[in-house]
UniProtKB/TrEMBL annotation:
The lineage of its organism: Bacteria, Bacillati, Actinomycetota, Actinomycetes, Kitasatosporales. It comes from the Bacteria. Gene3D superfamilies: 3.90.1200.10. Residues 17-230 form the Aminoglycoside phosphotransferase domain. Transmembrane segments: none annotated. InterPro entries: Aminoglycoside_PTrfase, Kinase-like_dom_sf. This is Phosphotransferase.
Length: 278
């Protein structure tokens, strides 16, 4: 078994079993975990190319104060999924009907505030040294400054519907001649523009070629950067990306260095400063 990813969840692969173990941080995440499983099952019923849960195993499974879910293992394969694949998958996802089970309204703020509260809890040398009070205060104030406007947008947006919530190339897998859209933790109802942000900000933040972004927009059928809500949505998305990275600062020197880069650009209002994916 090997670690695939460590973030909101820990993902472990067991190729011999054909399984991926997805371990939530706490068993308090049951509603979110149940939503992920329901979403996966519903997408498969819609013939959408998603990742299959291994439902022959009873799940979610409580284990040592955490919840574990079991998913089909898909071995890495070439060619790697491209932004064109993401554009087509998002176009098709956004064309699906509203699911027949409850979904929350898109709201990244509770997760961000939980991260900030956790980072602010003293008690270990690592946590005390990892993120400064000044950084935590800035991020908290940025959340305060944007939360109400974001909620108003979600409530009033005429284009609201099913959104993946974390739509980037890292959540694509090639399975034979198909590309799958995976990771349903952030699935919600909200502005579909939200799913276009990771690619749009890729040009400024991560060095994505403008020509690749233009192809993405052409395949999807819209350019989120031309919409009135873009600046607000981008600000909230970048706060989410930064607070996500913040969780790994105590355990990773590269994460600490990148966190400092992101904090400097957010403080300075520098929307073109280069960020690095970790």
């Amino acid at each position: 078994m090997r670690l695939l990813r460590l973030g909101e969840n820990a993902l472990f692969a067991s190729p011999a079993q054909g399984l991926v173990y997805r371990v939530a941080r706490t068993d308090a995440a049951r509603d979110k975990v149940e939503k992920e499983l329901a979403t996966a099952r519903w997408l498969l019923a819609q013939n959408f190319p998603g990742l299959a849960p291994r439902d022959e195993i009873p799940q979610p499974l409580p284990a040592a104060g955490r919840l574990v879910t079991f998913w089909q293992y898909v071995a890495p394969a070439d060619p790697a999924p491209e932004l064109a694949d993401l554009a087509v998958l998002l176009r098709d996802l956004h064309a699906l009907p509203t699911p027949d089970f409850p979904l929350p309204a898109l709201d990244p703020f509770p997760v961000m505030r939980d991260r900030l509260r956790t980072a602010a809890v003293p008690g270990t040398d690592e946590s005390d040294a990892a993120v400064s009070e000044k950084d935590l205060a800035f991020l908290t104030e940025a959340c305060d400054a944007n939360e109400a406007a974001f909620h108003d947008l979600v409530a009033s947006d005429p284009d609201a519907g099913l959104v993946h919530g974390d739509a980037h190339r890292g959540n694509l897998l090639r399975d034979g001649d198909r590309v799958l859209l995976i990771d349903y933790e952030a699935v919600a109802l909200g502005p579909r523009s939200w799913d276009l942000l990771p690619t749009a900000t890729g040009v400024d933040r991560f060095g994505l070629a403008p020509s690749e972004y233009a192809e993405f927009c052409a395949l999807y059928g819209a350019d989120v950067t031309r919409r009135d809500e873009y600046r607000l949505l981008r600000t909230v998305r970048e706060l989410g990306m930064t607070t996500w990275l913040m969780q790994n600062v105590p355990h990773s020197a590269p994460a600490a260095e990148e966190f400092a880069v992101r904090m400097a650009s957010l403080r300075e209002g520098d929307h073109a400063a280069r960020w690095h994916a970790l």
